[in-house]
Design goal:
With about 600 residues, the chain is of the alpha+beta class. The chain has 17 helices and 22 strands. Among the domains are: about 20-115, Beta Barrel (OB fold (Dihydrolipoamide Acetyltransferase, E2P)), CATH 2.40.50; about 300-435, 2-Layer Sandwich (Gyrase A, domain 2). The chain has helices at about 65-75, 130-135, 140, 145-170, 210-215, 255-275, 285-295, 310-315, 320-325, 345-355, 390-400, 415-430, 470-475, 505-515, 520-535, 545-555, 585-590, and strands at about 30-40, 45-50, 55-60, 80-90, 105-115, 170-175, 190-195, 200-205, 220-230, 240-250, 285, 305-310, 330-335, 365-370, 380, 405-410, 440-445, 450, 455-460, 485-490, 495-500, 540-545. The strands form 5 sheets. Strands 6-9-10-22-21-20-17-11 form an 8-stranded mixed β-sheet, sandwiched between helices. Strand 7 (about 190-195) and strand 8 form a beta hairpin. Helix 4 packs across helix 6, helix 4 packs across helix 16 and helix 10 crosses helix 12. About 35% of the residues are buried. Bound molecules: aspartic acid.
């Protein structure tokens, strides 16, 4: 027996993890290490639930244990103990079916308190509705909770499984630099000032894209890396400034060969880790995904589709509809929800507010109460603006039936797609319309370019993606050029994406030109790539999976923060370490950096 000041228990080997003690161990001596999950005093007998990463076991102390009983009496939640004792079967009436070790308990002979613990800021042994900021500040405690332990273990299993697959298929794990130059993936760079090159900066990689391509030029043929990527984005939705990709690149494989191989990787992963069987993934062109689902990552678990009604609305007097219907960049689309006529006015107001997040100015709707009764059977604030024949043609096109509600989007195409696409997913969730648990697919035939707000072409994937046409055809009509890019989508989430790359310098230069990157700028930023393409670059392509999102989906977590050990908050900070933090003047001087005066925030009074 010892108290907390020394580590006397250490060195006496652990015989089992707490969660692994079971019936076969009855009557044998065990030596366990763990944390006190709970301690209960049952009138002269002390019960301690001892916890480690494998689970919990009940340890019993009775007064026969003498001084050890007295020590057990002192322990509190989260104390660290070494316990020695004998396993005994629980009597039938004390078996706990909810506990993996519920058929046994450990009758303690000795206990060492290896360390004490202050009362934790939140309870760990049961669900408590504690704010995420507190969980993140004390992340090391949050991670003790079973739920978090399971998620990070699943993550480890997933990456081990993927490594095994890639190793077995001849992929080489090669590391690429973290201190590097900008790799454009559409976000801002995280910059690191160089001390030795005054006034110059490294950029943290937004992805290992260019290095993996260069490894293909070097002839490694098959590369992978579980790589950290850094993107300084305004943290919309569920993004992290640093995240992990399973990054893959190969030579001499076609788009469909790469898709087949990576589909096999994901199929085997789900089968082995979750016991889920996937059929072969359907493939959907980007244009179809946008038309039918308003999204390039459609959630195919939801059996609702957008239906174009531009032609029907082009001549109605209702401006809200005829404007977009006659605008080449506009769209009028309908979304029919069977059984949705039960949605209340209040909920419709809620959905109207929801679509306004995506820029929609309103949400028109029609309830079909009695289709056979014609106009009389329809209920809607907008039908009075339309000729009867148009209303009837609309009902026919949508194959409307009693009990349906039909929502409309009318605006610029991008707004309609985003708003109705998001509404479709929200309705799927709210009304539980899912027809299956998992719906994977490939989205292909992406456009090469899209126009930004300033009317300039930008790469939809990244500027190294190969088009499906010649450089001449590309320059002639960049707007209709398609790329050899492919995204793997699961349940409305993009799991990964990649492409066949440009491996010829003339094509790469053409793409840079179209992206308004001058020859000088291209040389300055990507000269090393353009040079490499001149020295026998083989045809190559690859893909990257987002490990965080993959594990989030597989574990049923609702945020990627729950599958990252130490994530950042929505404002890209770490509340535990308080990073980012100020640095002292000496460090700034060494970097030759002078901070501008930061204006104090206005005083409220
Ligand atoms: N580098 C790409 C990305 O981060 C993936 C790829 O094209 O392989 O999205």
């Amino acid at each position: 027996m010892t108290d907390s000041k020394n580590n006397a228990g250490i060195g006496q080997q652990r015989s089992h993890y707490c969660g692994q003690v079971a019936l076969p161990e009855v009557d044998s001596e065990v030596s366990l290490f763990g944390w006190v999950d709970r301690r209960r005093d049952h009138g002269g007998v002390i019960f301690i639930d001892l916890r480690d990463r494998e689970g919990i076991v009940q340890v019993v102390f009775d007064p026969d244990a003498g001084e050890h009983f007295a020590l057990a009496d002192k322990v509190r939640s989260e104390y660290v103990l070494h316990v020695q004792g004998v396993v005994r079967a629980r009597s039938a009436d004390t078996i706990n079916a909810d506990m993996a070790t519920g058929e046994i308990e450990v009758y303690a002979r000795a206990v060492d308190i290896l360390n004490q613990a202050e009362t934790p800021p939140f309870q760990l042994d049961e669900f408590t509705d504690v704010g995420e900021d507190v969980r993140l500040k004390y992340r090391y405690l949050d991670l003790r909770r079973n739920d978090m332990q399971q998620k990070l273990r699943l993550r480890s299993q997933v990456s081990a499984n993927i490594r095994r697959f890639l190793d077995a298929n001849g992929f080489l794990d090669i590391e690429t630099p973290i201190l590097t130059r900008a790799t454009p993936e559409g976000a801002r760079d995280y910059l690191v000032p160089s001390r030795t090159h005054e006034g110059n900066f490294f950029a943290l990689p937004q992805s290992p894209q260019l290095f993996k391509q260069l490894l293909m030029v070097s002839g490694f043929d098959r590369y992978y890396q579980i790589a950290k990527c850094f993107r300084d984005e305004d943290l919309r939705a569920d993004r992290q400034p640093e995240f992990t990709q399973i990054d893959i690149e190969t030579t001499f494989m076609s788009e469909s060969e790469i898709m087949t191989m990576t589909e096999q990787l994901v199929t085997e992963l789900f089968a082995e880790v979750l016991g889920v069987t996937f059929e072969s993934f359907p493939t959907m062109p980007y244009a179809e995904a946008m038309r039918d689902y308003g999204s390039d990552k459609p959630d195919l678990r939801i059996p609702l589709k957008l239906v174009d009604v531009n032609d029907l609305m082009a001549s109605v007097e209702f401006k809200v509809f005829n404007g977009p219907a006659n605008d080449p960049d506009g769209r009028v689309a309908a979304l029919k929800v069977p059984g949705g006529s039960a949605i209340s006015r209040k909920d419709i107001d809620g959905y109207t507010k929801f679509v306004s997040i995506y820029g929609a100015k309103g949400l028109a709707w029609v309830k079909v109460n009695d289709r056979a009764a014609g106009l009389e059977g329809l209920q809607s604030p907008i039908l009075k603006f339309m000729p009867d024949e148009t209303v009837m043609a609309l009902m026919d096109r949508l194959e409307a039936a009693d009990g349906d509600i039909i929502f409309f989007g009318a605006d610029k195409t991008t707004v309609v797609n985003e708003a109705l696409g998001a509404l479709r997913c929200k309705l799927g969730e709210d009304l539980n319309l899912y027809t299956c648990e998992w719906a994977p697919l490939w989205v292909v035939d992406f456009p090469m370019f899209e126009k930004n707000d300033k009317g300039q072409w930008t790469a939809l994937h990244h500027p190294f993606t190969a088009p499906s046409c010649s450089p001449e055809a590309l320059e002639k009509d960049p707007g209709s050029a398609l790329s050899q890019a492919y995204d793997m989508v699961l349940n409305g989430t993009e799991l990964g994406g990649g492409s066949i790359r440009i491996h010829r310098a003339d094509m790469q230069s053409a793409v840079f030109r179209l992206l308004s990157i001058s020859a000088e700028e291209a040389q300055e930023k990507f000269g090393f790539l353009l040079d490499a393409l001149k020295y026998g670059a083989p045809p190559h392509g690859g893909l990257a999976f987002g490990l965080d999102r993959l594990v989030m989906l597989m574990s049923g977590a609702s945020s990627i923060r729950d599958v990252i050990a130490f994530p950042k908050t929505q404002s890209a900070a770490c509340v535990m370490t308080e990073a980012p933090g100020a640095v002292d003047n000496q460090q700034l001087r060494e970097l030759n950096i002078k901070l501008r005066q930061i204006e104090a925030p206005p005083q409220s009074d």
